[in-house]
Amino acid sequence: MTSTGLSLPAVPTRIVWNASLLAYNFGPGHPMNPLRLDLTARLAKELGIFDLPQVSLGEPFVAADTQLATVHEPGYIAAVREISRNPDRSNEALGLGTEDDPAFEGMHEASARLVGGSLAAAEAVLSGEALHAVNFSGGMHHAAAGKASGFCIYNDAAAAVARFLEAGYSRVLYIDVDAHHGDGTQSIFWNDPRVMTISLHETGLTLFPGTGFANEAGGPDAAGTAVNVALPARTTDAGWLRAFHAIVPQLTGAFAPEVIISQHGCDGHRDDPLSNLRLSVETQRQAALSISGLADQFCGGRWVATGGGGYNVASVVPRSWSLLLAVAANTRMPVTTPVPRSWRDYVRERHGIETPPVLGDGDDVWWRSWEVGYDPNDEIDRTVMATRKEIFPLHGLDPWFD
């Protein structure tokens, strides 16, 4: 593995992975292709990430119904079990057996295993065995308490949040950088003041699920704990990073979380077929670096990361998530690191896809900080200000200057 510059302190990191996670498979032609997970694991292995001395591999497990019921309604779990046994049926009222979420045999077990992966990551941090933990197969953020949605059956990230609450944590921060609004996780904790959900996503005016606007700010007992940044279509690196740094660090400081759980859908990449954002791998890596830094600053380093969306399964997802794993392991891996030839040859010969020669896209991630001032003629700035005006006063922050 390539490394440059000064060595970084080793951070005990748990990566949850097992090929059994590939069973979450909606069938041929569906965008949520488990190949993206297989190729990510193969690339991370060839880059040497799995073999770092500070990294340990954890096993996922099929979450029990009682664990699922911390965030899902018992009747919904029963319905998933039923359709898992009889996939020729559908329950469109619950989002099961639809075009987005086709039924398949063993769906309950496969979906509950994703939850078990994120719970295993959470347990590693809770026990002190790891400071950082990653389940890149997870991040199923559209699943609500009683309904499947957007390729998501059970919400593993929400279950991880609930596990920390169950363990006695009183302030859990969830940060979602997927191109799509993290609506399911937001809805589950809508009226819980112990949880702040922050979602940066393409505006619902142009992208599924059509929600996630600045005025969605939390329930009556938790005003200001749902935070939404609805970015314009075609937002590029500079605008995305400006928005992130104008909102997330300030609210993290005000909320003072004890742990951060983040969702790293990489479908905001400019080559992803299911969003209209124009981001690079460099920005997706920068998001991980920034979240890791916030965990260091406010949470004693405690950080659980999941995957999420990402539908350019060979050329984008494995590079983005391998860099996420490298950030979690606190190992220096430049975006100029070559993608191993053996991995590129495997993808070409096995799947007929030519992949980029280095981990990054070669983009500059400079952005204009909020301190230089608000520009009312800038669409990004208007989006940021809408969120700041809605949320900041509820936390004692000045939307213009903090």
Report on this model:
This protein has helices spanning 35-46, 65-68, 74-85, 107-127, 156-166, 183-188, 237-255, 281-298, 317-328, 341-351, 379-391, and strands spanning 13-16, 55-58, 132-135, 172-176, 195-202, 226-231, 259-263, 303-306. With 402 residues, it is an alpha/beta fold. The chain has a single domain (13-59, 111-395), classed as Histone deacetylase domain (Arginase, Chain A, 3-Layer(aba) Sandwich), CATH 3.40.800.20. An eight-stranded parallel sheet has the order 2-1-3-8-7-4-5-6, sandwiched between helices. The longest helix has 21 residues, at 107-127. This is Acetoin utilization protein AcuC. Residues 30-326 form the Histone deacetylase domain.
